[in-house]
């Protein structure tokens, strides 16, 4: 490809609205352009990288025995009503109507479409198991689209779905796709880990997320410092055994705590530790009031709360409702004398607090010497808090540390969540009707591209790994108006293409400084520069990653490149 014939609008300034490296460089090097918030055009270089990621995904999915298909992005609302997600998916789902006022959604995911397809087409156990996948644009009206391609509102996903007659069969495909995913992210050159995850809105049980380790990751991974345990902190269970101090239980006393509205200010005022305090938060769990108690130095994990109640929605109660239900504003809340009808649930750690401190449900007052059960009701104890660094690892080996991760893939065992809701059944060997057992498997293809961009760069621009680089070689004649240089450039361009190198030739009449800056910014693995020694048939080869430069005779260029490409 010649640069004069394509569109690579490089920039010299870092775009103001881009705050992570991948987003800055994808814009600056002319790979993408933003169209609207979270919505992008892939320019020719960006499209090539995207396609390379897709090709790796395709190869590994095909090898794992999955067949590609393509389903519609525009989906009838009826299917989502059947599964129930029309009512529970929330504002992320893009909804629209056609000219007859029939409701549709733009596909955020495809469980509904594929389940309806398979229920119509597969009737017998003889046709199962079956694994199908597609690579397609998805739409999600994200609350905070950000970091460029990492969290878009329109993005490219590979989604796969498997159908089975038994959990063993699902387990086999799950394991096979686990391996395929590991291959895909390894081939993309990413530093990743597979972690145990929460099934969230998908309604499944066994699930793993594939996380690229990165400081800009929005997820936190809790991993053991001495075993291979790794989980999303959203779901990592806390296995700490709490013990009571043995101190005698005192009498409750109300104390004045003006202006102390946070755990730390209350603890300071009363000269106690945060561990001695109760944190009380009023939640709406599927609309019901639930007072949640955790120790002052702990944080409520709303996903654990959601799972405990098997709820569709969990949110903090709005301020006005807190006042209505508990009689005061947040900052002085507590569990003592809470009226019936408000469920009180507590993290296990709360049970072990002797003579604790909590809000008195009266503005500016706290209680001291409160003890669970004696002074306040707890309807249920459960694991409700986020794991913390230094906690015992849930597998019992070592302690927990945190790392940040970008979720690039997610695999789930769905079970019969969709087949039961949507009546996707088959006839077994005995002629009995059974719901299909399902799995689903996603990869953020465009997010993976951004994760690679985030990992492979230096101060001058991209340093693409060869598997994903938009081109193999950047051929740069310094002065295209020079007859010798131009002729040699054309000759080498043809020769390299014949040797199956994908070449980008900078045939623009630009100054050398502009060409070199752009070349480093674009970041192809190897640059071949044609300059003053063109008349002697000598060119310069530069390896982008190491900066290593050598001069070679044109006759030796192909063999030199072969050698270089073996080593990078
Ligand atoms: P997240 O927690 O990041 O919102 P998710 O749990 O909603 O992700 P899934 O529904 O599991 O994501 O989608 C499968 C994959 O699609 C994810 O692993 C991720 O790589 C990708 N993905 C999800 N949302 C986006 C987005 N807004 N932009 C780009 N890729 C996304
Ligand atoms: Mg999401």
Written account of the structure:
With 568 residues, the protein is an alpha+beta fold. The protein folds into three domains: 55-237 and 402-449, 2-Layer Sandwich (BirA Bifunctional Protein, domain 2), CATH 3.30.930; 253-382, YbaK/aminoacyl-tRNA synthetase-associated domain (YbaK protein, Alpha-Beta Complex), CATH 3.90.960; 471-567, Anticodon-binding domain (Rossmann fold), CATH 3.40.50.800. The protein is built from 15 helices and 31 strands. Strands 3, 7, 8, 9, 10, 11, 12, 21 and 24 form a nine-stranded mixed sheet that branches. A hairpin with a 5-residue loop joins strand 18 (356-359) and strand 19. Helix 1 (21-28) packs across helix 12 (445-455) and helix 2 runs antiparallel to helix 6. Adenosine-5'-triphosphate binds at residues 109, 140, 142, 151-152, 155, 157, 407-410, 442, 444, 446-447.
Features:
single chain; 568 residues; alpha+beta; BirA Bifunctional Protein, domain 2; YbaK protein; Rossmann fold; 9-stranded mixed beta sheet; 5-stranded mixed beta sheet; 15 helices; 31 strands; ProRS_anticodon_short; proline-tRNA ligase activity
């Amino acid at each position: 490809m010649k640069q004069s014939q394509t569109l690579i609008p490089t920039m010299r300034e870092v775009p103001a609205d881009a705050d992570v490296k991948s987003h800055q460089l994808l814009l600056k090097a002319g790979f993408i352009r933003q169209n609207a918030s979270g919505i992008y055009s892939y320019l020719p270089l960006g499209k090539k990288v995207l396609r390379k990621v897709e090709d790796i995904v395709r190869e590994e999915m095909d090898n794992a025995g999955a067949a590609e298909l393509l389903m519609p992005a525009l989906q009838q609302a009826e299917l989502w009503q059947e599964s129930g997600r029309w009512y529970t998916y929330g504002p992320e789902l893009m909804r629209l109507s056609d000219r007859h006022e029939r409701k549709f959604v733009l596909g955020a995911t495809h469980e509904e479409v594929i389940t309806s397809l398979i229920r119509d087409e597969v009737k017998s156990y003889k046709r199962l198991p079956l694994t199908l996948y597609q690579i397609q644009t998805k739409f999600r009206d994200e609350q905070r689209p950000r970091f460029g391609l990492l969290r878009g509102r329109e993005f490219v996903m590979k989604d796969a779905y498997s159908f089975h007659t038994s959990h063993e069969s699902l387990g086999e495909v799950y394991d096979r796709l686990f391996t395929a995913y590991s291959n895909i992210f390894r081939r993309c050159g990413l530093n990743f880990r597979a972690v145990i995850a929460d099934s969230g809105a998908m309604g499944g049980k066994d699930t793993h997320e594939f996380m690229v380790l990165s400081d800009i990751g929005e997820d936190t991974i809790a991993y053991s410092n001495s075993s291979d345990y790794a989980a999303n902190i959203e779901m990592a269970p806390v296995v700490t055994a709490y013990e009571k101090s043995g101190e005698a239980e005192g009498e409750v006393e109300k104390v004045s705590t003006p202006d102390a509205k946070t755990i730390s200010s209350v603890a300071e005022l009363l000269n106690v530790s945060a561990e001695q305090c109760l944190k009380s938060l009023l939640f709406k769990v599927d609309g019901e009031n639930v007072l949640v108690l955790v120790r002052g130095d702990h944080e409520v994990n709303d996903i654990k709360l959601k799972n405990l109640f098997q709820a569709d929605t969990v949110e903090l109660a709005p301020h006005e409702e807190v006042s209505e239900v508990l009689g005061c504003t947040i900052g002085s809340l507590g569990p003592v004398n809470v009226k019936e009808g408000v469920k009180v649930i507590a993290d296990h750690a709360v049970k072990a607090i002797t003579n604790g401190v909590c809000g008195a449900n009266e503005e500016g007052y706290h209680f001291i010497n409160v003890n669970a059960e004696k002074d306040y009701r707890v309807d249920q104890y459960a694991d409700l808090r986020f794991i913390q660094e230094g906690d015992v690892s849930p597998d019992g080996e070592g302690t927990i540390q945190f790392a940040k991760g970008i979720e690039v893939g997610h695999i789930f065992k769905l079970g019969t969540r969709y087949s039961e809701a949507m009546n996707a059944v088959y006839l077994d060997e005995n002629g009995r009707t059974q719901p299909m057992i399902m799995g689903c498997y996603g990869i953020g293809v465009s997010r993976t591209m951004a994760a690679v961009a985030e990992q492979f760069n230096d101060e001058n621009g991209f340093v693409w790994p060869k598997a994903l680089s938009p081109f193999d070689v950047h051929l740069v004649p310094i002065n295209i108006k020079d007859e010798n240089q131009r002729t040699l450039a054309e000759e080498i361009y043809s020769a390299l293409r014949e040797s199956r190198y994908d070449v980008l030739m900078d045939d623009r009449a630009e100054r050398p400084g502009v060409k070199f800056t752009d070349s480093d910014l674009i970041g192809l693995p190897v640059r071949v520069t044609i300059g003053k020694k063109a008349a002697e048939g000598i060119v310069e080869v530069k390896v982008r990653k190491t900066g290593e430069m050598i001069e070679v005779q044109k006759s030796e260029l192909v063999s030199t490149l072969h050698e270089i490409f073996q080593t990078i």
